[in-house]
Specification:
The protein has 334 residues and is α/β, with parallel strands linked by helices. It is built from ten helices and 14 strands. It has an eight-stranded mixed beta sheet, sandwiched between helices. A four-stranded antiparallel beta sheet has the order 5-6-4-7. Helix 1 packs antiparallel against helix 10. It is globular. Keywords: Methyltransferase, Transferase. This is Protein N-lysine methyltransferase METTL21A.
């Protein structure tokens, strides 16, 4: 889908801006060599990674605050029951508050369940914090901080084109606790948070905790959020007819497919990519995959299999605010 764009947008794929420093990925081995070489040059080899660890094992409810600087205008969102926006005109700052429940019991009892809690990641961003003063913060928070601040400051180097983003139907894979659906839904036309069945109730509880009256909100913040079960393995193993029952891409085409930190287990790569391929409408759906650089072999396999899928073009989008521990990939199906 073509859109008008500014001088800052060398190419616009859906709402995502490809600027001059974006790199088209054509060889998985070469890309992995570049990424992990830069990681080690930066003084943090991939072997130093602490591994997955959740944010706070004692908390059932986490209060998250985003402190946004450089806000050029009052955000269009309306304060809700728990998700509040407070503007301090003198300092041009805005604070966004979100409360999240996490299911620690599910993490211990359900094999393969990593979405029921907030996870630690390499982050030292001083502009957001948790009220319980956890020393490390989950990457989904970093990503939300980046997008919210770029959006509300109208930054010229934003990952997203602000005007186009507001017209987008967004679907998130692996939504986990539902944090991004709460933080980013006010910026888009429609936001669908998806994950495996056992996590749906948790996401629904968090959405309703932050948007009073959800899901029966006629208009305003939260009214554009839906929560749906979407199992990648089920999509991969289903016939075309069955897939349409899981998610109908004809009736609800996806403009932006968002995936944040879901590449960590090699067995999930084939069903994950099958799901990405099915949900993507050629020439319309922009796929944004943000991943921490963990095991080289897993990232190599992911990129290699994605590049082998017919019709796909893939770019890596550098971002200094993200840091070298993470990679941002844009996929576009022709």
């Amino acid at each position: 889908m073509d859109h008008k764009h500014t001088d800052y947008d060398l190419t616009l794929k859906g709402p995502i801006r490809l600027t001059s420093d974006s790199v088209q990925v054509t060889d998985a081995d070469e890309e992995i060599f570049i990424l992990y070489s830069e990681l080690q040059i930066g003084g943090a080899a991939s072997t130093d990674f602490r591994g997955l660890g959740y944010l706070d094992s004692r908390k059932d409810i986490l209060e998250i605050k985003f402190e946004l600087k450089g806000v050029s205008e009052a955000p269009s969102t309306t304060p809700t029951k728990k998700s509040k926006l407070r503007k301090a005109p003198k300092e041009a700052k805005t604070t966004v508050e979100i409360e999240l429940m996490q299911d620690k019991t599910a993490l211990r009892s359900r094999k393969g369940d990593t979405g029921s809690v907030l996870w630690k990641a390499r982050s030292a961003n001083p502009r957001h914090f948790l009220c319980d003063r956890a020393q490390t913060q989950p990457y989904s928070i970093d990503f939300a901080q980046l997008i919210l601040e770029q959006y509300h400051s109208c930054a010229s180097n934003s990952l997203f084109n602000r005007d186009v983003l507001g017209s987008q139907n967004v679907l998130e894979l692996g939504a986990g606790t539902g944090l991004l659906s709460i933080a980013l839904s006010p910026l888009v036309k429609r936001y669908t948070a998806t994950d495996i069945g056992p996590l749906i109730h948790l996401i629904e509880k968090n959405v309703s905790l932050n948007f009073s009256g959800w899901p029966n909100i006629p208009a305003g913040s939260g009214s554009n959020v839906s929560v749906e079960e979407l199992d990648w393995i089920a999509v991969e193993s289903s016939s075309p007819t069955q897939r349409r029952k899981i998610y109908n891409t004809v009736n609800n085409p996806v403009d932006l497919l968002l995936v944040v930190d879901c590449i960590y287990h090699p067995s999930l790569i084939p069903p994950f990519l099958a799901t990405v391929d099915y949900l993507s409408t050629p020439g319309r759906t922009a796929v944004l995959i943000v991943s921490e650089l963990r095991a080289e072999d897993v990232m190599r396999e992911f990129l290699d299999k994605w590049l082998c899928m017919p019709g796909w073009e893939i770019w890596r989008i550098p971002n200094e605010e993200i840091g070298k521990h993470y990679a941002i990939f844009l996929g576009w199906k022709n």
